[in-house]
Amino acid sequence: MLIARTPSQEIRFVQQLEELGFRLMDTLVYYRRDLQRMPLPEAQDAALIRPVQNGEEAAVRAIAAQSFQGYFGHYHADPRLDQAACDAAYISWAERSCVDRSVADEVLVAELDGQLV
């Protein structure tokens, strides 16, 4: 499996890849907000945002399973891949991100009333 990301203005490159047998599976959209011009509103019952702690991997795994349920990303878009394995890949990625610094430099969690949310 090869995953290639390219800016949308490089559509000719994408077409060349498709001519070679590759398939476009999905696209990404990135949003920005200028916090100087448009600050975030004050939150009600704000959650504490903090680094994940050792022993919280199971909670992160459960949150990832719920968060990615029904998600349709580039793995799911490929009909050659098993859908259950695609679901498991996202859950595994979230869990590995907590314990392996080669996967993620830092994982932040939200805690509300003593529970990860």
TrEMBL record:
<dbReference type="InterPro" id="IPR016181">
    <property type="entry name" value="Acyl_CoA_acyltransferase"/>
</dbReference>
<protein>
    <submittedName>
        <fullName>Uncharacterized protein</fullName>
    </submittedName>
</protein>
